[in-house]
Amino acid sequence: MINLFRNLFPFIVFLPTFSFADTTENWQLGFQDPATPIMEGIINLHHDLMFFICVISIFVTWMLFRTLWHFSYLNNPNPSSLTHGTLIEMVWTITPAFILLIIAVPSFSLLYAMDEVISPAITIKTLGHQWYWTYEYSDYINEDNEFIEFDSYMLPEEDLELGQLRLLEVDNRMVIPVNTHIRVIVSAADVLHSWAVPSLGVKCDAIPGRLNQTSLFIKREGVYYGQCSEICGINHGFMPIVVEAVPLKNYVNWISTKLTE
Ligand code: CUA
């Protein structure tokens, strides 16, 4: 009972300011909750493919055990002399090809949907460094003709406040509005990194001297956690990504405070 109260306490007291953090949970097996149409598409494709995988594995396992059974002298003393047949070979060639064709249709449509950048309202450049991320909002310029640019470092364990996630929280989050087409330009300053946020369905390599591009359209407010996903050196595991999706009004406020800083 005391434990129940302890667990519910933050929910009761801080309910008005409570928001779900999109991150991993203990013993998680499936995906994190999607926040973009792309991630919804990825999860749906995964579920579609699971159907084919289940049918194929059950069928192949059944055939394997049936073969083993009939290979036994006790069960089948007079083996068949059949070595090959045109019909069976056509069936086991055409059927898998046909399955692959069926799978290819939703797979390709998702692939091209992920590649599409629909006339973005905001462009954000993210640069991977050893071992932190830099975010540049070059759409906005302040009085000194400087655009918004800031570093995003992981919070060390001793600086964490109650409720903040170890190895995932950063000092400066990337803030973006919901329901807006956003272009993210990804690059790196030193070595290969990868900008990845599972809930948003984004994993984009950050390559020095090269600009990669992805798009985001976040459907709900929230805090989305991700990590660098390309081995980039000793602190590879300590350069997390935090994306905070807020209503457009709050985003405009955030931009104006950043510009006056
Ligand atoms: Cu940066 Cu791994």
TrEMBL record:
Stored Gene3D superfamilies: 1.10.287.90, Cupredoxins - blue copper proteins (2.60.40.420)
Keyword Nucleus: no
UniProt GO MF annotations: copper ion binding; cytochrome-c oxidase activity; oxidoreductase activity
Named cofactor requirement(s): Cu cation
Start and end residues of each Cytochrome oxidase subunit II copper A binding domain: 119-257
Catalytic activity field: 4 Fe(II)-[cytochrome c] + O2 + 8 H(+)(in) = 4 Fe(III)-[cytochrome c] + 2 H2O + 4 H(+)(out)
Domain Cytochrome oxidase subunit II transmembrane region profile intervals: 23-118
Keywords: Copper, Electron transport, Membrane, Metal-binding, Mitochondrion, Mitochondrion inner membrane, Respiratory chain, Translocase, Transmembrane, Transmembrane helix, Transport
Subcellular location, principal: mitochondrion
SUPFAM superfamilies: Cupredoxins, Cytochrome c oxidase subunit II-like, transmembrane region
Pfam families (UniProt xref): COX2, COX2_TM
Domain of life from the UniProt record: Eukaryota
Task performed by this protein: Component of the cytochrome c oxidase, the last enzyme in the mitochondrial electron transport chain which drives oxidative phosphorylation. The respiratory chain contains 3 multisubunit complexes succinate dehydrogenase (complex II, CII), ubiquinol-cytochrome c oxidoreductase (cytochrome b-c1 complex, complex III, CIII) and cytochrome c oxidase (complex IV, CIV), that cooperate to transfer electrons derived from NADH and succinate to molecular oxygen, creating an electrochemical gradient over the inner membrane that drives transmembrane transport and the ATP synthase.
Family designation: Belongs to the cytochrome c oxidase subunit 2 family.
Official protein name in the record: Cytochrome c oxidase subunit 2
Organism of provenance: Corallina officinalis (Coral seaweed)
